[in-house]
Amino acid sequence: MTASEYKKVAVITGGSRGIGKAVAEALVAQGIRVVIGDILDDDGHQTAQELNHQCAGDTQMAAYIHTDVTLYKDVIALFRFAEATFGGVDIAFLNAGIISGADNVFLPLEDEVEVNLPKVNVTGVVKCTKVAVLHMAKRGGGVIVNTASVAGFLSGMQLAHYYATKHAVVGWTRSMKMLKDICNVRVNAVCPHWVATDMQGMILNKEGDDPYKQLVEQSPRVKMETVVRGVMMLIEDEKRNAETLLTLPGDVIRVQEPIAEYEELSTSEYAALVDGYQPRVLDHYKKQLEQALDRYGFLDVYRKQQSVEPSAFSYSTKELEDDHRRLATTKIKGMMVLVICSFTTTAASPATRCASSQSMHAILRHDLNFG
Ligand SMILES: NC(=O)c1ccc[n+]([C@@H]2O[C@H](COP(=O)([O-])OP(=O)(O)OC[C@H]3O[C@@H](n4cnc5c(N)ncnc54)[C@H](O)[C@@H]3O)[C@@H](O)[C@H]2O)c1
């Protein structure tokens, strides 16, 4: 693979180890460059080094930067660092998460007890999404995958607060559906069952005879390969948007559909109300996006990108070169079309006209994307 063939760029939070690291390895194996943001600096640097060694040649494929996802200054620095290092951001895997403090119903009534879990698992995802969207909108689009969990659909006393945070990630993910129409950004979530990572240590290494420890010890695990495959499906499949994808033991991957619409709300009056609201809300958010891009210093580039290629997803140097080559070929063939046109409209026989018009249609179909 040559340097110009390395295409997209991914930001991964919580990628120093565990699921984030496994996904980073899979992305790099596909030629996608990766920037990891985490608070575990030694592990993070080590992971970036391993990823760089994973590929032949001396092209840099990975970088690490200290990032606490609960702080805007860190999150902004992460995405700006990715852009400065690799030229932009096309993919964000928002995966950083914690489980400690989840079994807190009977803990002391102190304000700090409940702070950290939602701050990392929910606010971290929200903050990273908001920054990622600006970088992706500027680039013409992108895809975000959040790490939720089966805990986003289940419930249980032992990890009640963790369950609540993952329900929130599911809600946030599904609520982002309209981003696709606003700025060509898709948002999905992977929802794994238990995976053997350090996170489980928080439960398995607990002192005492917590009955939940035994349950977790003996619970079936989902293979890391299954989780990685689920994430890759969400990244690669352009049709997947606002989707929550379960990854389960037995190598099972399936969509968890949202609950059905409430019958009580399915009236024609309400449907008409929603129909009238949809086009207006899109305009409303497109304006808000421009204001946000302006505050972030990206508006000019965004507008330029919109006027050049409104629906472009992302362009590497190689893709740009290919486009220029295609454009040049198209111009030549366009001239051929004109020649054929003038020929067919003048002295040619009906049979020649028919053959000429067929080749003209073929050129239009293949090179100008008509029909
Ligand atoms: N392991 C499982 O069984 C399992 C199941 C379902 C979902 N998940 C979710 O998967 C994600 C990854 O977890 P994992 O299993 O790989 O565990 P892990 O502990 O190995 O990885 C979590 C990573 O997030 C990082 N992190 C924590 N707080 C952070 C912060 N404030 N800023 C930046 N990074 C931070 C950690 O340093 C770590 O590298 C989490 O969101 C977790 O909730 C895990």
Q: What would you say this structure looks like, in words?
A:
It is globular and about 65 Å long. Helix 3 packs parallel to helix 4 and helix 12 (about 315-345) runs antiparallel to helix 13. Helix 4 (about 115-140) links the parallel strand 4 and strand 5 (about 140-145). It has about 375 residues and is α/β, with parallel strands linked by helices. An 8-stranded mixed sheet has the order 3-2-1-4-5-6-7-8, sandwiched between helices. It is about 55% helix and about 10% strand. It has helices at about 20-30, 40-55, 70-85, 115-140, 160-175, 180-185, 200-205, 210-220, 225-235, 270-295, 300-310, 315-345, 350-365; strands at about 10-15, 35-40, 60-65, 90-95, 140-145, 185-190, 245-250, 250-255. The longest helix has 29 residues, at about 270-295. The protein contains 13 helices and 8 strands. It has a domain at about 10-255: NAD(P)-binding Rossmann-like Domain (Rossmann fold, 3-Layer(aba) Sandwich). The model is unreliable at about 1-5 and about 310-370 (pLDDT under 50). The structure holds nicotinamide-adenine-dinucleotide (NAD). Nicotinamide-adenine-dinucleotide binds near residues 19, 68, 120 and 200.
